[in-house]
Amino acid sequence: MKLLTKVSALMSRNLITVTVHTPLAEAGELLVKHGIHHLPVVNATGGLEGIIGKSDFLKVFTLDRDTASVKDIMSTHLAKLEPDDTIRTAANLFALNKFHALPVIDGGRLVGIITTLDVIRFVDGEQTQLGDYAK
């Protein structure tokens, strides 16, 4: 298995992002429209402020829905990867922290995102040989 493959080979680069001021309704519509589960929250210079996932919307029930924005439910204490980190590093972070998405940062700017689904597709798409199963 090629677990030493760099994260940059798998990460999504054309990201749909929001800001801390994006209304929750708009963020929710973006998730549905694009069929995604996570939205990175960025500032004006492309720096990562946090991330919002579908599960974060469970917090909405305790908020004023008319005035709530992304900043009210986003996660801010994030594990991050760099493009040269390996798939093994990503897999370990996913397993240890039960994350489903990790932002990829280069020079302080968000350059991509990698998800558990990306890693699963990578593993599933690998060519296997009968010898891979030998003891």
Automatic annotation (TrEMBL):
Pfam families: CBS. PANTHER family: CBS DOMAIN-CONTAINING PROTEIN CBSX3, MITOCHONDRIAL, OS02G0818000 PROTEIN. This is CBS domain-containing protein. The lineage of its organism: Bacteria, Pseudomonadati, Bacteroidota, Saprospiria, Saprospirales. It comes from the Bacteria. Residues 11-67, 74-130 form the CBS domain. Keywords: CBS domain. Transmembrane segments: none annotated.
